[in-house]
Amino acid sequence: MRSQAVKGTYDVLPDATPTWRYLRSTIERTLGRAGVREIVPPIFEHSEIFDKSVGESADLVVQKEMYRFEDRGGRSLTLRPEFTAGVLRAYVEHGMHTLPSPVKLWSLGPAFRAENVQRGRYRQFHQVNCEILGSPGPLVDAEAIALLHDLLVALGLPDLRVALGSVGDPEDRDAYNAYLREALEPRKHELSETSQERLRLNPMRVLDSKNEQDQAIVAELDAPLDRLGDAARAHLDGVAQYLSDWGIAFDLAPSIVRGLDYYRRTAFEIHAEGIGAQSALAGGGRYDGLVESLGGPPTPGIGWAMGVERVLDALEGAGKLPGPDAGPNVFLVPMDETAIDEAARLARDLRSDLHVQHAYVKRNPGKGLRDADRAGARYAALRGERERAAGVWTLKHLASGEQREVPESELRTAVLED
User: Fold this and answer.
1) CA 261 to CA 285: how far, in whole Å?
2) pTM reported for the whole predicted model
């Protein structure tokens, strides 16, 4: 059988790596200017970290899709399905709650879920993650949303819309879940199998169903925003006011929900216009109880995750992806055996200032120039017995065809002058 990547994974090939460098540099610049610092948690954690953060009544799909295994000591470990739990475990373990608040952290890397594979949905996928910890007010929520919005704009996606909602305080959520159970129980048999299970464990997740019949049923019910308590409503109004003041377009999303138990109050998504029905690029929300559940002190927090593959698809559709790396400034072509070592030595010397490649075997001029052209070089420099005797290289500009003999000591300057 031919070797190939595991289903649901993919290789980032050399022509695509400039895009990933562009992504990382844009993150570092945009988030770094706001004092958000990078943290790199392990790819796997003790399973209990995710059990505590996901919770029994959270979306069953997330639980079933986690890659879980035992190590040689019989300990249960899990490949991270998302970043938040691991980042907050590190926050607690290293006493970062003693730092000035709010503590702002970002991460970039792979996450793992055993999902049904389709375009833009993989089993090893990548996320940009941001957490802001230690401040409970609407200002920090608005800043988190604004940072995500600014990052997407900086990457090249200006046609964005924020969907802003709230899941309320725990008592609001409990009351709303009770309302949904009472309203939906008589019609449970009309719901999809997944929504029937969600109704039992976490009724709010029924609102997130993609099933048309489910959607028709819940459309007749009150939305979470309709049943917010006064405190959660005031918090939402504060976030909305900041976004309005900052010129960030948003729509109130009455039925926006979150599948994980730790979310409180603010919940949001950012959508890109013009990329089809699956337009959500990122989302997040407030989770004031999560740090405490992981053994830390009571700590308010808000975070978001951005799906890298979704963003790259959107950038490609908008024609905003960076091109492949530029080719070498000069490609050295040895035309006899002696010139092979001369080209290798000269390449090492010139690489202090230039991108230089060379052939590793002797080439005739025609094949050498084709090698240089395929490498994307600006110049080809050829060396044979005649050039050696004169102490020069024949330097050819591949676009114009102009060529001249250049002393080896002046080759660096001749290429740099272009």
Assistant:
1) 12
2) 0.85
